[in-house]
Write a structure and sequence with these properties.
Blueprint lengths: L23 H36 L3
Length: about 60
């Protein structure tokens, strides 16, 4: 019931490095991109429908 480990010494595992953080410039860029996407989410359908309506009126005969 005895196990000879041959002078084995326990070595604790290295802790994982912390997750990388964004720099302030990168955070600002992410906020601008998200803001632009939200703006396009709101305005996109209106702009798209007006472009389609303009194309239909160009080809309308009469």
């Amino acid at each position: 019931m005895f196990r000879d480990l041959g002078n084995y010494q326990y070595r604790p595992q290295k802790p994982e490095p912390p997750a990388r953080r964004l720099t302030p410039g990168q955070e600002r860029l992410v906020i601008w991109v998200l803001g632009f996407n939200v703006l396009m989410l709101v305005l996109g359908p209106f702009c798209g429908s007006s472009v389609v309506e303009a194309a239909i009126s160009l080809f309308h005969q009469g």
